[in-house]
Amino acid sequence: MANSDPDPGPAGDPASVPPIDSVHRALRLLKSLRDGETLGVKEAAEMLDVAPSTAHRLLNALCYDGFAVQGRERRYRLGPEFRPDESRPLSIHDLRTAVRPAIEDLGAELGETVHVWIRQGPLLHWVDGVEGTAPTHVKSGGWDRVPAYASAAGKALLSELTNKQLEDVFATGLPPARSSRISNLRSLKRHLTAVRSRGYAISIEESAQGVDGVAVCAKDSLGRPVFAISLAIPSSRFDRTALPEYVDSLRIAVERTEDALERTVAGD
What we know:
Number of strands: 8
Strand order of the largest sheet: 5-4-3-8-7-6
Oligomer: single chain
Domain HTH iclR-type: 20-80
Pfam families: HTH_IclR (PF09339), IclR_C (PF01614)
Domain IclR-ED: 74-263
GO biological process, one term: negative regulation of DNA-templated transcription
Largest sheet: 6 strands, antiparallel
InterPro entries: GAF-like_dom_sf, HTH_MetabolicPath_Reg, Tscrpt_reg_IclR_C, Tscrpt_reg_IclR_N, WH-like_DNA-bd_sf, WH_DNA-bd_sf
């Protein structure tokens, strides 16, 4: 019986073998990223002539293996697997130098206490802070080893992890927290979905009585979460209608520190 398959072409000729669609599409995305482009899901879908959901899955697959990263405004760019020269870890001194001007200006603008945190496993470590100038304000300093899932800064940082990474971080369970409504990993994952969607995190008296928080995550040039900048506000004055103002100011401070970090890594 005759073979109905297409002619595979001359033996040993790679160009004659039809590409696997998903691999071919992923490589097209990589070529665009390699050429310095940043891609949104809609642009990637139009370039590949596929549904946005398909483009999103392909971009996430590239991110999973480090070939792409998702940066500001949820756009994708080349990842650390192709940029090993930019993978140098930053010291605490680097972080403090980068954040100090921005958090001083943020504190002066809003009159609230500003904190800078990094994550160490399931806990947060305090890096720097500026005490508020409002008549009633949260004291700076004396904060450390806070369960990450029970604070705004921690949730902002955790929201940048995949579910698999979250499972690794909390492999032994969630450490006890004072009054968090999050009781297990499942509820944490659900909560972080909302944090990712809005791009900031809040906490209501979860890590300290009488203190509410708002935080935004800062990333390095490869899109990796580095630290979070948070506002610590007395619960008696916390105003949800002011959240847009808080978040806008935090995002400006984060962008300034991200730019400063890039210059630090580049040696400028």
